């Protein structure tokens, strides 16, 4: 049995382990209590006077921080702006974290509040501050497709290659979600496109290939991603695409020079993985990579040459019910894929 390529991959930047989930629940409860207190006139009046009477700057900063978080939760840009302008000591509480380890900037990014993100950055929020899971606002922006936030964070000198747990970077999040426009932005800011996830050795190209994110694969190849890179088990991006039956991705990788007979540590090639999983159409294109399916002209000789070897074996073993039909109609079959009538997801 072939060695299966590692499955994806990147844990959510929310870091929702059991402990984190409990902390998030506790924070939600506290937020609801704060809202009740606010409705009865608590916010912005009694606490501040109480703090002033007790001459406790720490208490005052803590209360201002809570107020700021509540205004962000409400999405009230005007009041957030007023709150930020109200004091000269904003730096003493702007980067304070919640119980679950989230900063005001991180929360605003996750909620897609671009105007508030801009205000926080203008007032000096720490652009690379980490949450309790060691992820940054840029990680969250890439995972949640917040393009505006991504641009603002990078413009304010966010570290494009700052690593989270296990070496995960912003480009890994954007790649896993298939956000090619976000990947493009990260590449413009010199993100390391061949950066590996420590525990698996997976690169962005491997992630995109496994998931069939065609646009991301194209973007990474054009940017010079290493198509021959191997994960910790010796799998290339083509191994991943072949294992998952991603026909169009295989074509792109082959056109870029990927080797369909490159063995992993178990001596399994992309052809072996496609064959084992029953992707006969992928076996065909891998066995006969010189065939140019991007053109509308495909000769009988090309197809008859490709109908030997592993392709016939794969059809007969995996789909004996349709093998004769496919062999008989091989021209129509290949053109069917060439025209894109079967999507990467369906294949």
Automatic annotation (TrEMBL):
Listed GO molecular functions? ubiquitin-protein transferase activity
Please give the start and end residues of each transmembrane region.
Answer: none
GO aspect biological process, one term: protein K6-linked ubiquitination
SMART domains in the cross-refs: ANK
Q: Which PROSITE patterns match?
A: ANK_REP_REGION (PS50297), ANK_REPEAT (PS50088)
Keywords carried by this UniProt record: ANK repeat, Repeat
Q: Which segments carry the ANK repeats?
A: 100-132, 133-165, 166-195, 200-232, 233-265
UniProt protein name: Uncharacterized protein
